[in-house]
């Protein structure tokens, strides 16, 4: 293959409106938020239509040219990082909200649309789009689907894949799979939709999607709770799911290491409680009847206080109160500034194991690196634990040792090395901690069938054979 050849063909067939060469994009970001390095690619493709994407992939397939699709570059696993010999493809021009179907309760979008744009369109039409992430203003629907993003509402609405009825995908050879259906039930053969969602751009490029919408909640009740131990946390979750009329829509758990660090280092934050506890829970429940639901939520908190499940709680009396609670949890966006050399983990365990696994991990890290900062928090209702580690003066060997320790404990508990951020380049070498040799072999077979030349996002997800 000759790079000038593939670039000249791309320019001839797509034009310089779509194809920008290396010298024109040298200052553009070539890496996501993972901290992994990226290099300016050979060229950047910015298609306007699915047909443009199809032609671009057909050319890259013919020349066996590696290609990396990029969304909002907010990923944390290195899945969108490019190398000097890659071509990048961004769907930033394909961001149209095409149609909202009031009867089917769906929205059809091009996948370059930001998550926030889809949320706003749904709200304007009287619906809610359930997927929600802190990076909502920057991340794109394509990236959300490619990584099967999770976020704050998984406990009630599920992961990104659970918000999708149909997708359009362009395969490595330029073939277009139009699966933009609106049916909830569709058992007509293999479900290629779910094969593509979560494949991180290694099997195809998702260009359009039909997304589920939900009714807007009439009232959302929110509380910040202090608890004495992990058993109390799981009891609160279980009882809330059983007793609240609509269960919980968010259940965020924070260890005191996390809250203490945040309140000390982010001046705008204020603690919702004037008491100290071993665990803090940010609990939210959305209901169809605002005043009645708020009263039921308040009664439930009173019962939990009287029975000793919670030690103290602050109930949001307004949207402003609720927003201030969420600001504490969402202050994780400050991490790149506060701890630019942090080591971040996004792992999952069985809910019953999280308390013990977190304690074991925290103790092991502090014992080996006494000067380290270790922060723990997570979406307890779906088993997702986030761990932030900073070791002063850490070199590459130290980072490897920290990752080996943490992922070793994940393996011990038969957890997952990635709960919601994907594998990308960062975790491909530990994918075998979570997936069996037979599963990895099946994944490689799928990759070989759909991308025989291995041009889509090479070096990502699958470990070297």
UniProtKB/TrEMBL annotation:
Residues 37-216 form the FAD-binding PCMH-type domain. One of its GO terms (biological process) is respiratory electron transport chain. Pfam families: FAD-oxidase_C (PF02913), FAD_binding_4 (PF01565). The keyword Oxidoreductase applies. Keywords: FAD, Flavoprotein, Oxidoreductase. Its cofactor is FAD. InterPro entries: FAD-bd_oxidored_4_C (IPR004113), FAD-bd_PCMH (IPR016166), FAD-bd_PCMH-like_sf (IPR036318), FAD-bd_PCMH_sub2 (IPR016169), FAD-linked_Oxase-like_C (IPR016164), FAD-oxidored/transferase_4 (IPR051264), Oxid_FAD_bind_N (IPR006094), Vanillyl_alc_oxidase_C-sub2 (IPR016171). GO terms for molecular function: FAD binding; oxidoreductase activity. The keyword Heme does not apply. PANTHER family: D-2-HYDROXYGLUTARATE DEHYDROGENASE, MITOCHONDRIAL. Belongs to the FAD-binding oxidoreductase/transferase type 4 family. This is FAD-linked oxidase.
């Amino acid at each position: 293959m000759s790079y000038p050849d593939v670039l000249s063909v791309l320019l001839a067939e797509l034009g310089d409106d779509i194809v920008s060469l290396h010298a024109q994009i040298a200052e553009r970001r070539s890496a996501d938020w993972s901290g992994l390095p990226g290099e300016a690619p050979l060229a950047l493709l910015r298609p306007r239509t699915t047909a443009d994407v199809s032609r671009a992939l057909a050319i890259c397939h013919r020349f066996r040219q590696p290609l990396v699709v990029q969304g909002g570059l907010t990923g944390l696993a290195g899945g969108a990082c490019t190398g000097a010999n890659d071509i990048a493809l961004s769907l930033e021009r394909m961001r149209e909200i095409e149609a909202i179907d009031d009867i089917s309760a769906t929205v059809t979008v091009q996948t370059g649309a930001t998550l926030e744009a889809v949320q706003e369109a749904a709200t304007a039409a009287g619906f809610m789009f359930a997927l929600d992430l802190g990076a909502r203003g920057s991340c794109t629907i394509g990236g959300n689907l490619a990584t099967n993003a999770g976020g704050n509402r998984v406990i009630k609405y599920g992961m990104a894949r659970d918000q999708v009825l149909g997708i359009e995908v362009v395969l490595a050879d330029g073939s277009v799979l139009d699966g933009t259906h609106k049916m909830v039930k569709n058992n007509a053969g293999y479900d290629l939709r779910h094969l593509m969602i979560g494949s991180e751009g290694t099997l195809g490029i998702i260009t359009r999607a039909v997304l589920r919408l939900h009714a807007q909640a009439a009232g959302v009740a929110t509380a910040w709770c202090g608890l004495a131990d992990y058993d109390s946390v799981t009891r609160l979750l279980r009882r809330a799911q059983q007793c609240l009329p609509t269960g919980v829509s968010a259940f965020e758990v924070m260890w005191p290491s996390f809250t203490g660090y945040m309140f000390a280092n982010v001046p705008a934050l204020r603690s919702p409680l004037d008491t100290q506890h071993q665990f803090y829970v940010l609990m939210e429940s959305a209901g169809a009847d605002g005043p009645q639901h708020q009263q039921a939520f308040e009664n439930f908190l009173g019962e939990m206080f009287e029975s000793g499940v919670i030690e103290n709680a602050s109930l949001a009396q307004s949207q402003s109160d609720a927003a201030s609670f969420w600001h504490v949890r969402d202050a994780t966006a400050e991490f790149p500034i506060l701890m630019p050399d942090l080591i971040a983990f996004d792992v999952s365990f069985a809910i019953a194991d999280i308390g013990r696994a977190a304690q074991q991990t925290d103790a092991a890290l502090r014992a080996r690196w006494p000067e380290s900062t270790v922060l723990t928090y997570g979406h307890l209702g779906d088993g997702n634990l986030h761990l932030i580690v900073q070791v002063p003066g850490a070199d590459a060997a130290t980072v490897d040792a920290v990752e080996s320790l943490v992922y070793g404990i994940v393996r011990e508990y038969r957890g997952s090395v990635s709960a919601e951020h994907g594998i990308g380049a960062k975790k491909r070498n530990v994918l075998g901690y979570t997936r069996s040799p037979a599963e990895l072999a099946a994944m490689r077979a799928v990759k070989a069938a759909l991308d025989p030349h291995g041009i889509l996002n090479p070096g990502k997800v699958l470990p070297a054979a």
